[in-house]
Predict the structure.
Amino acid sequence: LGHLLSIEGLPERILLEILNTAESFLQIGERAVKKTPTLRGKTVVNLFFESSTRTRTTFELAAKRLSADVLNINVATSSHNKGESLLDTIDNLMAMHVDGFVMRHSEAGAAHLVARHVDQDAWVVNAGDGRHAHPTQGLLDVFTILRHKGPVDQLKVAIVGDILHSRVARSQIHALSILGCPDIRVVAPKTLLPAAVEHLGVRVFHDLDEGLEGVDVVTMLRLQQERMEANLLPSSNEYFRQYGLTDKRLERADPDAIVLHPGPMNRGVEIDSVVADGPRAVILPQVTHGLAIRMAVLTSLAGARDRDLHRDHG
Ligand code: CP
C-alpha cells in the first residue's frame, strides 16, 4: 500500500490484510498493551481542514500507540489563513522530513493532489475528501460488520439517509462489494441520492420500511447540512417521520440486525435515542474498531515505504 486514498479499486488481498492486522491490534488493545514500536522514529501529520472528532483522535491515538511522533496542525490558526496554498503547506511540512499525512478536506480529490505532489517521499491517507471517499471509515464499518455478523457474502445491508453527500456511504459500498456482499441497499428520498446511484451496484429504495425488510445491517447517516443549500434542507421533523430509525421501524429488519452510524449522530433527526443507545447499536464499537483499523493502515503504509527504501538503497 503506497497511499490510502479510496477503497474503490483496492485489491481484496490488501483489504483483507488490513482487516486481519486490525484484528491483532484489537486483541492487543483488549489486553491493554499500550504501545508497539512499529512507527518509532516516524512522524505523522494530522492535517484536518474539516471538523472531526472520531477520525482525527483515533488517527492520533493510533500513531502514538505505534510509537510515532504526531503533529496535529490546527488549520484554524495555521498560515493557511494568511493565504498559504495547500501544496506550500505540504512542502514546508515535508522540509521537516515528516513521513506521512492524514488529511481531511472539503474538496473531493484533495488527498489525491497531495499524494501526487509528495509522490514516493511520504504517504498520504485520505481521512475524508468532500463527498468522495472516507476509506478508513469504510474499513472500520466492514470490520464491525464482520465481527458482529460474520462473512458479508450472506448479508443484506441497508444504508439509509443522505447518500448524495456521503463519502461514508460510498466507501462502505465499495468495501462491501469487494468482499462479495450480495444485497446492498440505499434508502433515501430522490433529492438525497446521487445520479445513477445504481451503477454502484446497489438497490434503491425511497420507502424506509421497504428498504429495511429483512436486512442484517442498517447504517444510518446524518443529513450533511454543511454541504446543502439552506433552501433545500428538509425539515428535521418531516425527515424523522419518513426516514428516522425508531424501534418500531427496526422491527422490519432481521431480529438480530445491527445498527451502525459513523457519527456524529443527530438524535431525533435520523435516529431515535432508543435505537442509538439500544442493544442492537454497534456505534461505539465502531469507534473502538476505528482505532485498530487506523493502526493497521499506518502499519501497512509505513511497512511498504520502508520496503521501498530498502529496495532503492539496499
Ligand atoms: N465518522 C467520522 O468521520 O467522524 P468524525 O467526523 O468525527 O471524524
